[in-house]
Automatic annotation (TrEMBL):
This protein's UniProt keywords: Antibiotic resistance, Cell membrane, Membrane, Transmembrane, Transmembrane helix, Transport
Membrane-spanning residues: 20-41, 56-73, 85-103, 115-133, 145-166, 172-194, 206-225, 237-255, 276-299, 305-328, 340-359, 365-388, 458-481
InterPro entries, alphabetized: EmrB-like (IPR004638), MFS (IPR011701), MFS_dom (IPR020846), MFS_trans_sf (IPR036259), Sugar_transporter_CS (IPR005829)
Transmembrane helix keyword on record: yes
Protein name: MFS transporter
């Protein structure tokens, strides 16, 4: 029997579980940053003299840089090597966080947030692709992605708790400074522990037209939805951004089909399983991000919770995500096809969202909000885990970075769309309710009650849309994702060019 060449044999990295700690730590830091600044924003705005019109840019600058540069970051990870990109991303993120924490004015703050987004775009795809190439055994891979999926899903809610604590008991600047120890520990640990497998780099020349078109197209799309929230959907600038985004992204697809070394090889997208993951996950994130915002405002403004109490009120969702991801998802992933986890997961989250359409001013937290959050967490945790693993299913190791970047891109763009779309729906419903009922509120107390009731009406109207979006996510996952249950062993040759019938969530070299 001929000897099998070394490059087709996958050896388990003895330090893989230590590596997971540092990869997970970095992912937690990036996800935390998406929400931790939200709670600190009012204090930072007052200290730095940021106008009401410009305060959204503290959030938007991060989202634009992160969402716009993710594909470029994924390609850099494939080109430089994932470990090197990961460490550079961590160091840069720490430096940008230090700059944000030390900000003395509006320009310095916005610049720091944009830098955080840019280094996050290097870091996030490198983290996921490192995980994909480090864990090649089916059972171990399920556990590793279970932990990663729980962090990716629950990190935003953890950010709300941490942001509340830091803002209330220390200072808003600590919502930036807290990233520095995270980043240093993860960078040192990664440098010492992570061993990137050989043969996984893509040393092709960089597709500069693809970088420019994808970055401008994604920035236009994210900014279009952000602008729609403040200026309205019929605003000429908003429409112009959407049209520009469509033209740029179409030009990007046409370019990628022709160039020799594309930034995003279309084979990464055209695989029905990966395409199903990107689409269903992006839609599910639309509903989740909008919900975070509505529940935060409902608990603080309507129910009168403090920032710390609000953060703790999200704990059932975090617990649900951890259980769904590490217990349900991990245990069943090697036994059932992924769509049998993702579709029921999204539907379970949809049931939790459906409960929240019953919100009223006097709604009991324990009676309605807590069980709704548990269902949301369980459902999303169960769905996130196989989705993260499937994102790099059967992809050539040289494309692992850009395939991982597509997951983050779908989440980031989904989050921006979710916040803007659901906020606009809520605002319209609130305005309509106030207009219809203004005549009945003749006293100051009555007017205040009307305002609160209008807010709740707006939230529930938007949450109905979120329910529908989760149902669509479930249908897409069930229809498009058709791979069978994964092989539990180490399988070589599952990259591009392998037998199409071998459908295993294993990347071999």
């Amino acid at each position: 029997m001929p000897k099998v060449p070394d490059h087709t044999v996958t050896h388990a990295d003895p330090g893989r579980w230590k590596a997971l700690i540092f990869i997970a730590l970095a992912q937690l830091m990036v996800v935390l940053d998406a929400t931790i600044v939200n709670i600190a924003l009012p204090s930072a705005q007052q200290d730095l003299g940021i106008s009401d019109g410009n305060r959204q840019w503290v959030i938007t600058a991060y989202a634009l840089a992160f969402g716009g540069l993710l594909l470029f970051g994924g390609r850099i990870a494939d080109l430089w090597g994932r470990k090197r990109t990961f460490v550079v991303g961590l160091i840069g993120f720490a430096a940008a966080s230090a700059l944000g924490g030390a900000a003395t004015g509006e320009a310095m703050m916005l610049g720091a947030r944009a830098l955080q987004g840019a280094f996050g775009a290097l870091l996030a795809p490198a983290a996921l692709s490192l995980l994909a190439v480090t864990f090649t055994d089916g059972k171990e891979r399920a556990k590793a992605f279970g932990i990663y999926g729980a962090i990716a899903g629950g990190g935003g809610a953890v950010g709300l708790i941490l942001g509340g604590f830091l803002t209330e008991y220390l200072n808003w600047r600590w919502t930036f400074f807290v990233n520095i120890p995270f980043a240093i520990v993860a960078a040192v640990g990664a440098y010492l522990v992570i061993r990137e497998p050989a043969g996984g780099r893509n040393r092709s020349t960089l597709d500069i037209p693809g970088v420019i078109l994808s970055t401008l197209g994604l920035v236009s799309l994210v900014y279009g939805f952000t602008r729609a929230e403040s200026e309205g959907w019929s605003d000429a600038g908003t429409i112009g951004l959407f049209v520009g985004s469509a033209v740029l992204l179409l030009a990007f697809v046409l370019t990628e089909a022709k160039v020799k070394s594309p930034l995003l090889p279309l084979r990464v997208l055209t695989d029905r399983n990966r395409g199903g993951v990107y689409l269903s996950l992006g839609l599910a994130v639309i509903s989740m991000f909008g919900l975070f915002l509505f529940l935060t405002y409902y608990l603080q403004v309507v129910k009168g919770y403090s920032p710390v109490m609000t953060g703790f009120a999200f704990l059932p969702m975090i617990a649900g995500m951890i259980i769904g991801s590490t217990q349900i998802g991990t245990r069943l992933m090697t036994r059932v096809p992924p769509r049998m986890l993702m579709a029921p997961g999204f539907l379970t989250a949809g049931v939790g969202m459906l409960l929240l359409t019953q919100l009223e001013i006097g709604t009991s937290y324990a009676g309605l909000i807590l069980p709704a959050q548990l269902l949301l967490g369980l459902g999303m945790g169960t769905a996130f885990m196989p989705a993260m693993s499937l994102a790099t299913l059967g992809v050539d190791p040289r494309d692992a970075g850009v395939a991982s970047a597509m997951v983050n891109t779908s989440q980031q763009v989904g989050g921006a769309i979710g916040t803007a779309l659901l906020n606009t729906i809520a605002a319209s419903a609130t305005t309509a309710y106030l207009t219809d009922n203004a005549a009945g509120a003749t006293t100051p107390a009555g007017q205040k009650l009307l305002q609160l009731q209008g807010m709740v009406e707006g939230y529930t109207a938007a949450i109905w849309w979120a329910v529908g979006i989760l149902v669509v996510s479930a249908v897409i996952a069930f229809t498009l994702i058709n791979t069978g249950k994964p092989d539990m062993g180490v399988v070589a040759g599952s990259g591009e060019g392998a037998d199409d019938e071998v459908k295993v969530p294993v990347i071999a070299h």
